[in-house]
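Changelog-adjacent note: as of this version, every example in the card shows the full chain rather than a window. The one below runs 307 residues end to end.
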Amino acid sequence: MSFFRLTDKTARTKPSEESGSTGFRRAVRIIRTVLICFAAALYVFYFLTNLRAMSIGGGILSASLLALFTFAAYKAVPLVIRTLVGERLCSFAPVANARRNFLRIVLAALAIHIVTTILGMVLYRVFTPDFSGNLFELWETSWSKHNTDVPHYINIAENWYVNDGKDRLLIVFYPMLPLLMRILNLFFHNSFVSAQIINTIATCLASGTAYLTLYGILDKKRSVHAALLSLLLPGAIFLNSPMTEPLFMLFCFCAFYCLQKHKFILSAVFTALAGFTRSLGVVLAAAIFIEGVGTIVRNIRDGQKYG
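Full-length structure tokens:
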């Protein structure tokens, strides 16, 4: 996973011959050019096929998102190439007092999660004064009745996938979360409660795993801030929902942490679980492939075994 770190003063080593050669720079330019041309062609195709239905705002938003992802890939090209040729870009520092600090982060994440959930309930109650019921009923209604995917996951958890009717279209929702909800329903008999329990646990464990993953790249202070402050971002509202975001985040961080430790099989298992949760999980396989190839090349060059 060495290519995930862009700058690391403690891990900079003498650049490899590949990094400074004319061939390396030419390869970077070629790949970047192909990347930009592909992104431009992709957007032109998308624009032409959706011209009638696309609004000005939608066109600008889609172009901005594509530009953002293209820029990230553009910056990653030299790092990916250097990793593939076996260059180690950074050394991951061992985590001091790993278990104790992991537990502290998990408990802190739980406290933040509880506070933000209660705050969300109260704010929603303020803006819906005509609602009759307690805060929990209000919270369940807010996620189940509005334009979210929550009813679909609850439907799958309670009825599983079907072959007829409108519910046959629910096949597009991946089964990891509904499966876990279905199991917990044996004890709680409420799909919304089951989903909230799963996602609360997943959110807290994801924060702890994020700390362990980032500690090897950043220092302790910044890794703690990254793990906890991410729970306060606007998009973190979905971590309080009975949807797949917390579970997917947990599996992603676990996959990257195992990849740091060169536990490729375990990383592949978490990648599969992420793919079982959301379709984007399969993208993690690219990171395993890149780091795996780089490790094999480096070990062969150093005369080590890699089996």
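Structural remarks: The chain has two domains: 17-84, 98-301.
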